[in-house]
Specification:
The protein is of the alpha/beta class. 42% of the residues lie in helices and 15% in strands. It has helices at residues 21-27, 32-53, 72-95, 111-123, 140-154, 160-166, 212-223, 233-236, and strands at 13-17, 57-64, 98-103, 130-138, 177-180, 199-202. The structure holds 3-methylbut-3-enyl trihydrogen diphosphate (2 copies) and magnesium ion.
Amino acid sequence: MPAEPACSPLPAHVAIVMDGNGRWARQRHLPRIAGHRQGVDALRQCMRACVRRGVGVLTVFAFSSENWRRPVPEVNGLMDLMGKALVREVAELQKNAIRLYVVGDRARLSARLQDGLRRAEAGTAGGERMIFNVCFNYGGRWDIAQAAARVAASGQDMTEAALGRALALAHVPDPDLLIRTGGEQRISNFLLWQSAYSELYFTDTLWPDFDDAALDGALAAYAARERRFGRTSEQLAPPPQAQGAAAC
Ligand code: IPE
Ligand code: IPE
Ligand code: MG
């Protein structure tokens, strides 16, 4: 059974598939990389908004295992952007007490980028206000496979709990709310294991246009959802003597 998060109208963990950068650029007759650059600005704004609203964990999909299939100049541009953005944003993360984790298969990244990622993580290790996971060269299938290999190598029984502890996002609870911008309604190999009970929210807004109002729209939709975790609505209603107590 999945762990049940605390009942709250505010999601403790928000995950986002930041999609639509390319279309945002095309609409403006700009190269795709201009859309990715604008996407970094949108992410900075979203990160700040999440901290202000009291979200405990923000996890974003920045580069998937499948994104290597894109044209080489775009892939190189995204690698470059990631390296530069991290160096540039460390001070901002520190200022907001945000702890950065870069999640994914780093083996295929350049030694220089790997070094930059390590430094950025180390530089924010003291952050206690919000955890910020950037999924980069990440795939849900990769994660499950690497976790299974680690459990097998350790000699433990292959249980849900053991696998869960070996996953790349074991340091955070499962996402309560999973947002995808850009109009597509698919998971694209994001948090396959962890999204088992996430509330899904799809919006046509392209990622570079995803502002505070768009975030609030997603949070409001989440607050109106009933999370049952297999139970019935009646089971969730508070008994009459517990009026005023939170109903989940
Ligand atoms: C998402 O935007 C960012 C990455 C996948 C890196 P896209 O680049 O996929 O934008 P669209 O879907 O082509 O508009
Ligand atoms: C998902 O977006 C990956 C990221 C946002 C990093 P894509 O644009 O790559 O997804 P597909 O290929 O259209 O499903
Ligand atoms: Mg896309």
